[in-house]
Design goal:
Blueprint lengths: L12 E3 L13 E3 L10 H15 L3 E3 L2 E8 L4 E7 L2 E2 L1
Antiparallel strand pairs: 1-2, 3-4, 4-5, 5-6
Length: 88
């Protein structure tokens, strides 16, 4: 469900999905307000949103791997790694 949280930069439309059709919607399209699975932009938009959120919470991105973030304090540290839409 992570990909549903990305914000779209473009104005995108899609046909009404099978099963949601009725006579009032026949021949009409939907304007997408959020990313959906299968959308080419979905993973990138989710990553950009995640990236901004994690930086605003004091994490730093590792330059050698843009999917690794670290937050250090006096005696502790936290490492977050991303793989597709999973965090470790």
């Amino acid at each position: 469900t992570a990909f549903f949280h990305g914000d779209l930069k473009e104005e995108l439309y899609m046909e009404i999905s099978p099963g949601f059709e009725n006579e009032q919607l026949k021949g009409k399209v939907c304007k997408l307000l959020r990313s959906i699975y299968g959308l080419k932009q979905a993973s990138r938009q989710w990553y950009l949103k995640f990236h901004q959120a994690i930086l605003s919470n004091g994490f730093q991105m590792i330059e050698e791997d843009h999917c690794v973030y670290i937050k250090m304090s006096k005696n502790n540290f936290i490492v977050i790694t991303l793989y597709v839409d999973d965090m470790l």
